[in-house]
Design a protein that fits this description.
Blueprint: E1 4-7, H1 18-30, H2 41-58, E2 61-64, E3 68-72, E4 80-82, E5 88-93, E6 98-106, E7 123-132, H3 135-144, H4 149-157, E8 160-164, E9 168-174, E10 179-185
Antiparallel strand pairs: 1-2, 2-3, 3-4, 5-6, 5-10, 6-7, 8-9, 9-10
Amino acid sequence: MKKTFLFCTKIWFYLTELAPTVLLLIAINYNDDMDGGFRLYPLIAFSVACIIFIFLYFFRMVIISKEEIRTAGLFSSRDSAVVEKDTTLKITLGAHRRIDVELFGKRKAPDFTWSKQDITDEQIRLFHEKAVGGEIAVKRILTYFGVSIADVKSLLSSNTHECSYNYFNAEAKAYENKRVISLHFTKTV
């Protein structure tokens, strides 16, 4: 089961790793000069723990497969949604290499009998996450779903473009400062 990934953390967030790394290097350097039972080992352990915690805290990614879309990371929302018939995957390319990934679908019938009377056929947002990347990341997503290279170029460059494939229809629209690419799934894979 193949998947594609989008990272959600900007790389400059990891500059916060510099302070504990410098502290760790200083503690390792002066550890042999200390005369005590524990020397600087508690400070070394604390610095390593800080480095690991900062990395795990900021690490977030979106995992997209043909069956589902979900977020991954120890401190992420761990949200997920199933990609099935009559769902739409919207990828919005914004300014500053920002990508919004959304999955829209129809509201399912509730389990409770008393609330079944208010069912509408409206599209609701099942999944939303912000990721980091540009046209190359969107190109990777589109080719993962099987869009041809010629259609990928048209989807990323034309003001409007539509194309149909075996189990989805792709559409792109360009606005003032963003581009929205939609994949409307006509079959469940």
